[in-house]
Write a structure and sequence with these properties.
Elements (H helix, E strand, L loop, with lengths): L10 H10 L13 E5 L5 E12 L5 E6 L8 E6 L7 E7 L9 E5 L5 E6 L9 E6 L2 E7 L9 E6 L2 E7 L9 E5 L5 E6 L9 E3 L1
Antiparallel strand pairs: 1-2, 2-3, 3-4, 4-5, 5-6, 6-7, 7-8, 8-9, 9-10, 10-11, 11-12, 12-13, 13-14
């Protein structure tokens, strides 16, 4: 469980959130300079408008997209242009609450698979939850459960299921509590560091 603060989003953005995190919008001709965004399955999400296209200092193509056509971008995509293939999406930044700051940042490898995703759940400008991926599969999550700027919960996944949790309960930068879970999510073993040396001193079943 996260702390008392919770992610609160407008219903319109809640409906779009799953699709926002699926990668690059696919262009479709509409005749008015806009295009339809689609999710990974090809289902249309609604009409969006490309606001600006520019080149960053490191040579990436930056494309700002307005999903609700209010004149402000909700998504900024960063592409690497390729002469022998279609351009490659490397990063997607999303502003969920229209405050001009990034709330979700997804990073992709050269194969188009996600390698990292950061979420700012309380909209304070810093990530509270970071997911790490290998070969497109989530392997570890870092969580700031009390929103104080320090990650204190670490989740490790196997085949998409959390199998181990590590916690820094006292905020000293060292893991002092462990939980091991089975494939159903049931805790089967626990451990604690009692003397503060970063090593497990007691174990429970």
């Amino acid at each position: 469980m996260l702390s008392r603060k919770r992610l609160v989003l407008p219903m319109s953005l809640l409906a779009l959130l799953p699709a926002l995190l699926l990668g690059c919008p696919k262009p479709g001709a509409t005749g008015d300079g806009s295009y339809m965004t689609e999710n990974a399955a090809g289902a249309p999400l609604g009409q969006a408008e490309q606001l600006t296209t520019s080149t960053t200092a490191d040579g990436l193509t930056e494309v700002k997209v307005d999903l609700d056509r209010d004149g402000k971008p909700e998504i900024t995509n960063y592409f690497r242009e390729r002469t022998d293939s279609t351009r490659l999406l490397l990063r997607k930044d999303t502003d969920l609450n229209h405050d001009g700051r990034i709330d979700v940042r997804a990073e992709f490898d050269d194969g188009g698979q996600r390698v990292k995703e950061q979420l700012d759940g309380d909209f304070d400008g810093r990530a509270d939850w970071v997911d790490h991926y290998i070969a497109g599969k989530r392997t570890m999550s870092e969580v700031d459960t009390d929103f104080n700027g320090t990650f204190d919960l670490f989740k490790y996944y196997e085949s998409g299921v959390v199998r181990r949790k590590e916690r820094d309960a006292n905020g000293d930068g060292q893991i002092d509590a462990w939980e091991y879970l089975d494939e159903t999510g049931t805790v089967v073993k626990t451990g604690k560091d009692i003397d503060g040396d970063g090593k497990m001193d007691s174990r429970g079943q």
